[in-house]
Design a protein that fits this description.
mainly alpha
Length: 123
């Protein structure tokens, strides 16, 4: 296996792990996240729970796609979503350090995007 493929697989596993973990927590209805959705959107806890479940399913799908065959638009979505969900922390009143701590949530999918874009550009 080439050095490039090793790096790609490390990033794929890392991104998939992040999205699988977050997706399963969302499907399970993580209470703090339900509160954040309600706080940001003004919807009831019941609607927030439903929205969080849908987000959880989407996150699990992203994890599977990244593992099976990374698609560049999905990786860009993962980078955007990782950035947004990290940024939500200080927006809802947590420390800005909670945002900084999650830089890998958006940087890893973005790194994988550029790695794959570079490799496919050679083909």
């Amino acid at each position: 296996m080439t050095q490039h493929k090793k790096i790609e697989w490390l990033l794929r596993v890392g991104v998939a792990g992040e999205f699988l973990g977050h997706g399963l927590l969302a499907i399970g209805g993580k209470e703090a996240w339900i509160g954040w959705i309600s706080q940001l959107t003004g919807v009831s806890a019941e609607i927030a729970t439903t929205l969080l479940f849908i987000v959880g399913i989407a996150d699990v799908l992203v994890a599977l796609i990244v593992l099976i065959k990374p698609i560049r638009p999905i990786l860009l979505w993962a980078a955007f979503w990782g950035f947004w969900t990290a940024l939500v922390r200080p927006i809802v009143g947590e420390s800005v350090l909670d945002f900084i701590e999650r830089f890998a949530n958006w940087a890893a999918p973005l790194a994988l995007y550029y790695l794959i874009k570079h490799e496919r550009g050679k083909e």
